[in-house]
Amino acid sequence: MNQAQTELNSLITEVGKSVIGQQHVVTALVVGLITNGHILLEGLPGTAKTRSIKSLADRLNTSFGRIQFTPDLLPSDVTGTEIYQDMDGKPQLHFQAGPIFNSIVLADEINRAPAKVQAALLEAMAEGTVTVGGDSISCQNCLWF
Q1: Are residues 50 and 34 both part of a single domain?
Q2: Are residues 88 and 32 in the same domain?
Q3: pTM of the predicted structure, to 2 decimals
Q4: Dihedral (Cα; 24, 25, 30, 36), 10-degree rounding
Q5: CA–CA separation, 145 vs 60, rounded Å?
């Protein structure tokens, strides 16, 4: 067994310790990680979907973001927005990144979100960018679950 296989098996084992009885979910998450893909997790409430993704992010020592989609969510709640700041007496717009800029992002109940919010998420997933204030910003280092 080579080093990559050993590391992957170790990752699966470690994540599996915090998510008992969900080996197929943990394996699917690692496959998604390797292929830089997106994973659709479906299941009944309480089946450790969020916990398994959070555990994966913890084991990888990387940032984790969770977006709970609701009917009143705005695209800027996902992508981030420009904030007005007064720096040394000079007005400036400063970009405050949204949760989409975490390394691993859990998008929960996407179907509940308005169309514009879904479009912002799909732009990030498909193109690896978000558009804020007419500017495109790269978010290609993110994984979505």
Answers
A1: yes
A2: no
A3: 0.80
A4: 120
A5: 15
